[in-house]
Amino acid sequence: MSDPLSLGNSLQRLVAEGPEEAFDVRLVTDLPHPEALRRWRAVRELAAVRSEEDESGDFDDLLPLVGGDALLPDGFAFRITDYHDLAGGMALLVELMAEAGLRGRLDLVELPAPHLVGATWTPLLSTRLNVRARHEVEGVAVLRTVADAESLAAVARDLAGRALRSCTGRVQVGAGLPWTCAPADAADVVEDALGHGRGFRLVTDEEGVRRVLEVPPDGRVVSTVADSEWRRHLAGAREDLLRNAAHLEYGRIRAVVGWTATPVEDTEQTSWPGRLAAAAPFRALAETVGVADVFAVQVVREELAARVDAAAWRHVAAAGGMVLVEHRDPAVWFEGPQPDPAVLEAARHDWRTVVADQGTVDTLAAGLPRTGGE
User: Fold this and answer.
1) Low-confidence residues of the chain, pLDDT below 50?
2) Which secondary-structure segment (H or E) carries 50?
3) Quick check: helix, strand or coil at residue 14?
4) How far is residue 243's CA from residue 72's CA, in Å, rounded to a whole number?
5) CA 275, 249, 336 angle in degrees (round to 5)?
6) How far is residue 89 CA from its own chain's centroid?
7) What is the pLDDT of residues 116-137, one digit of tens each?
């Protein structure tokens, strides 16, 4: 049994001195991860109730602003990003945590910076999986995508499970703050994120090759491998799409170049993907009625695949009425960051009745349900 909820010496000194920037706090507790996180989520619910009951507004002014959290081997950590009166605010936060049933010792912790794929521009193989979702317009011109929870959980568990089974060292995972841990512990973060409708980011190494999985709440999942040897990874990425096809609206594999874990895609310096894919405010809609542009490997609905000229493309049936359509010569797509203009021109001709134009997307957007103000 751990001690009652208390502040460690380093945290007490920081509170007394007053820090000049955000800082991270960890709770060391004997509570198991799922229970500790359940009670931590309850702190936010208690704060919301107290805020509604406080007519003076003093409660919201006093409570520190908490941004992000991360599991640790002996508890969890969270970041204090802003505060008005730190001594009074920390006392209030401790009171709420105790009311939620948390116990243990609070102290400062220094969490690692997020992993970068590399210090220089790195070839990346990027797989995107658009999970089945509901689309609606929020306000005037914001597309709101709400992923199907069961489909998102299935895809996330599948991809995270594969990454964790094949990794060869410690991993970094976070649904807020990053945490470097053993693969078995990362599964707890994934399950907590999925159980609370939150996104997460998982970074693993496979024999020196870094893989980054980004799972946002809107279901536009991206799995990226940083390695110039694309042939080592294409088959695995292809299988990822086929295994999860029943849960998808759309999927694709492409080569990109980047230097952080988030690929540098669709910049104005390239003609590929096309400007619709790069700039349209309702880009996700293009992939519900067609495709935004052409890539070496794409998963689309059967009726769309049937409209693609089969001479240069191989069709592989997948679950859920989807078809994987892949170019018969993948090297022309993956040897560099983008295909030769002649290859791209021929491919766009093959897909000419499938690529959605701006007018199609605008018409579809006009018919979506609308929420929010004008």
Assistant:
1) 1-2, 116-121, 259-270, 275-280, 373-374
2) helix 33-53
3) helix
4) 32
5) 45
6) 31
7) 444 444 678 899 999 998 877 7
**Predicted local confidence at residue 172, as pLDDT:** 82
Q: What is the pTM of this model?
A: 0.73
From CA 146, how far away is CA 152, in angstroms rounded? Answer: 10
Query: According to the model, what pLDDT value does residue 118 have?
Result: 44
Q: 77: which residues sit within 8 A by CB, 6+ positions away?
A: 24, 25, 26, 27, 69, 70, 109, 111, 177, 179
CA-nearest of 183, 198, 186, 185 to 153 is 198
Angle between helix 231-244 and 149-166 (nearest 10): 150
Listed by start position, the domains of the chain span 6-108, 122-371
Architecture of domain 6-108: 2-Layer Sandwich (3.30)
Spatial distance between the Cα atoms of 47 and 332, rounded to a whole number of angstroms? 56
Q: Which two tokens stand for residue 243?
A: 């295994």
pLDDT at 284: 63
For residue 117 the two structure tokens come to 């794929």
